[in-house]
Amino acid sequence: MFVIIGLVFFVTSGPTPAAGAVNLEKSLSERIQKVGAIEIRDANRPLRAGAEVFKNQCSACHATGLAGSPKFGDAAAWAPRIKTGLASLVNSALKGKNAMAPQGGGDFSDVEIARGVVYMANAAGAKFAEPQAPAAAPVAAK
Asked: Is there a contact between 113 and 57 (Cβ–Cβ < 8 Å)?
């Protein structure tokens, strides 16, 4: 009886590779890999134009009207959205709405996403001003 318990303990106590792993070192590194990453961006780079943001981020859905999104330049589809105001449109773009995924935190800054929203809304008849980069906080004098 003690021999059987000893064998079970011996077999189950050693480190075992993950299922399908070829070697123990590789499976261990896969299990303890980092969870997140930090990306350093140039905060002083020039803002990208609304047309560029639309082309790279928004056109996949808004060029064709995919999943009920208003098509680019379709004044009838954009009119009720434009009436809600720029802040509401930008909030929907950053946080997501209906089938649209949140756009905030991606390749474009929040101001650039707002520029893309203004570009699309203005193409449908809105008269929104293009957002500018926020002014830097003044440095306190000593």
From this structure: yes
Name the residue ranges covered by the structural domains of the chain: 2-31, 50-123
In the predicted structure, residue 21 carries a pLDDT above the cut 60: no
Q: How far, in Å, CA of 114 to CA of 119, rounded?
A: 9
> 1.10.1040.10, 1.10.760.10, 3.10.450.50, 3.80.10.10: which CATH number matches 50-123?
1.10.760.10
3-state secondary structure the chain: CHHHHHHHHHHHHCCCCCCCCCCHHHHHHHHCCCCCCCCCCCCCCCCCCHHHHHHHHHHHHHCCCHHHCCCCCCHHHHHHHHHCCHHHHHHHHHHCECCECCCCCCCCCHHHHHHHHHHHHHHCCCCCCCCCCCCCCCCCCC
This prediction has a pTM of: 0.65
